[in-house]
Structure formats: C-alpha cells, structure tokens
Specification:
CATH class of the largest domain: Alpha Beta
Strand content: 25-35%
Order of helices and strands: EHEEHEEHEHEEHEEEEEEEEHHEEHEHH
Number of strands: 19
Shape: globular
Helix content: 25-40%
Distance between the termini: 50 Å
CATH architecture of the largest domain: 3-Layer(bba) Sandwich
Number of helices: 10
Structural class: alpha+beta
Largest sheet: 8 strands, mixed
Radius of gyration: 22 Å
Number of domains: 2
C-alpha cells in the first residue's frame, strides 16, 4: 500500500506535533507518522512540560531560550488555553554557592519577573532558604493532551519507518510491513532515533528522564524549580520531575524507583500537609545536541560532500550539498515544550516561504566541527 502526501513528518513527540500543527495552517496535504499507536509515547509524554525562561549570566543559549519562552507562552495561550497552565514558576538556588551567583543572573533575566525573599517564599508554602526569581508568565502544559490537541486536524498514522530513499522529486518511506509513504518533503522529528540517514555530524544524544504524578491533599498554587520541579496542584495532583540519566540502561540504575531521590527533596522544598502519594511514573528518552542548541533546518548529504570534496577532511570549506527537501526538527533536550513552537514557526517559514534558517539552530554549524574532527582522526591514524 502506498500513500502520497505533500509533507510527511516522522515522529510524534512535541517537536513533530508542533511542526504538524504549524504546517497545517498553510493548507498542505500532510501526514504525521510514528511507530507508536498514539502521539507523545516517548520522552515528550513523560516530560514535566514546564514552560519557563532560562536563568544565568547571559549568552546566546539563554537569549534564544528566553526568546522561545516568550513565543511559547503566547502560542499556548492562543491555541491551547485548556492545556497550558500559566501559574507562574519560582526559580530557587540549588545550593548556597548557587545563591551567591543569583545576583549576577538578575541583569540577564527575562524581563517579566519578581524577586522573592525567603519570607515571601515561605508565605507561599515553600521551604527555601534564599528566596529566588518568580516568573509570573511561566507555567506548564498537559503534555499528552496538548500534543493530541495539536494534531486534532492532522492525519496521524502508526507507521514504523525502517528506511527511506529519494527518487527524483519524491521521498519514499518504507515500513517493515511493506507499506510505503510518498512525500515531496520529509521532516524528521525522531528524537534520539536517528538512523534513517547519516546525521552523525549532529551528535544527537539521548537523556533518560522520569516524572511522577502524585496525589496531594493540598499544595502551593505556584510551581517551584530547583534542580528539579514540583508543579502547582490541579485536580489534587502535582507533577514532580524530572530525573536526568545518561546511562544506556537507566532501568538498572534506578532499580525500579527512578524518583526515590526526588520525593524526599520535594518534601523538603514544599510544605505538603502530608506526604504525596504516587499515582504513576512516566519515563522516556529526550534528545539533545552537542552544544545544547536545537537542531532545525536542512539536512546535509554527508556522503555526497565527502565524495565530491574529499579535501574538506583537510580543513577546506566548500559549498554545502543538502538532501533535497529533507529537514529536521530535533535536539530540544529538556526544553522541548519551550523551544518547539518557535522552532516550528521558523521551520515552517523556511519550507513554505524560503526563509533562511537562524544560524544558531541550523545543523550546519555542527557539520564543519565534525569534519575537522575527521581531519584530526585521519592525521592521528596517518
């Protein structure tokens, strides 16, 4: 069976769902496919889905994150108000040493914030020694529900893509069942699974995360973030998460209790009247890039580059050869619900309006670094 579309999006996490929602506004014939039977079955569904700015001493990553945060909070309010809860988030120091750095962060904060001292935090139900920064426009999303809402008008197909190739103007995506999807344009939103084409140069890496949903009798009306996050309560439930495990076998590391450490810390951070009772644990793999910036834009044809320009291994720079009409939206790390709306808007404009992709997120930035490493490896072997 073969089906034909203008655009096929592969991967139905927050990145794939957001770019699908964005492109649907252009009126194209679109298909979203995933190996799962539903959307957000991986890291996106297990995410705390917190939408907040980044604090720090400035720099390009903080600037981009805060730009994406402003865009995301307005995007969710406009399109999905039922599933975006703009309760505000209090960001507090992780340690006494971190508390000393907080005054250095303040000049670089997102403009909409308040400084809370420890007494103000205590009045709101938090046990933090140093106070922190409160961001009133921050909040969190209902992860699975918002992804489902995004694609309510987009065809979704359970389709495990095992291979793909291009024939003139058409991409063909194949499944193990022998079915085929044909599309003029393909967008890869596959997270940490990146075996469909040679994207080693992007350095996509997986980071395992777990979130727990807990029953509570009462909880503060605001969310608090230290090195992990405790959400405000809705319908008697709070979210606590997330863990960050780099192991390839995270289940053996946590011994069946991924949130054991966070539960105790949450009790020390939030004045719960009684201990929260675990409702369920959600786990999944996020994907990040080498430099923590998203990966959004065209995909380089590595094989053609190395074949046509072998001298690039020796440090030469040549015109970039891309796979025709192949794009990626990936590498959001733990900030998928912050980055995805703006990244999808930019990618939509790149595909539909020929807008040049912002260099901060274009995967091209990593190709030349990767080639230089090839040069060094060649020199060492030689």
């Amino acid at each position: 069976m073969t089906k034909r579309y203008d655009i096929a999006v592969v991967g139905a996490g927050i990145a794939g769902c957001t770019i699908s929602h964005t492109l649907a506004q252009y009126g194209v014939k679109l298909i979203l496919c995933d190996r799962g039977t539903e959307v957000a079955t991986g890291g996106s569904g297990a995410a705390g889905a917190f939408v907040s700015p980044k604090i720090g001493k400035g720099g390009p990553l903080q600037e981009l994150t805060n730009e994406a945060f402003s865009y995301a909070s307005e995007y969710y309010k406009r399109h999905f108000p039922k599933h975006f809860h703009q309760t505000g988030i209090l960001r507090v120091p992780k340690s006494e040493e971190d508390a000393k750095r907080f005054p250095l962060y303040e000049p670089f904060n997102h403009p909409k914030y308040e400084v809370w001292d420890a007494e103000k935090a205590r009045r709101e139900g938090f046990s933090c020694r140093w106070g922190g920064f409160f961001f009133p426009t921050a909040g969190d999303c209902d992860a699975e529900e918002i992804c489902k809402s995004m694609i309510s008008e987009v065809p979704f197909l359970t389709f495990d893509v095992t291979s793909m190739e291009r024939d003139e103007d058409i991409w063909r995506l194949h499944s193990c069942d022998g079915d085929t999807i044909e599309a003029s344009i393909v967008i890869l939103a596959t997270g940490h699974r990146n075996g469909l084409t040679d994207m080693e140069y992007m350095g996509v890496k997986g980071l395992w995360g777990s979130r727990g949903d807990y029953y509570v009798s009462d909880a503060p009306r605001y969310t608090i973030h230290e090195s992990f996050t405790v959400s405000s309560a809705r319908n008697g439930i709070v979210k606590i998460g997330a863990t960050h495990v780099k192991s390839q076998d995270p289940c053996s590391i946590c011994d069946g209790r991924p949130l054991a450490g966070l539960e105790e810390r949450a009790m020390n951070l939030v004045d719960f009247p009684e201990p929260p009772l675990l409702k369920e644990t959600l786990c999944g793999m996020r994907s990040g890039s080498r430099d923590y910036f998203p990966l959004v834009g065209r995909v380089i044809d590595v094989r053609s580059m190395l074949k046509r320009y072998p001298e690039i291994k020796k440090g030469a720079t040549r015109e970039t050869i891309y796979h025709r009409n192949l794009y990626i939206i990936n590498g959001m790390g733990g900030r998928g619900f912050v980055f995805s709306p703006l990244m999808a808007a930019w990618l939509g404009e790149t595909i539909m309006d020929r807008r040049e992709m912002d260099g901060r997120v274009s995967p091209d930035r990593l190709f030349w670094r990767w080639v230089r490493r090839l040069k060094n490896e060649t020199s060492e072997r030689g």
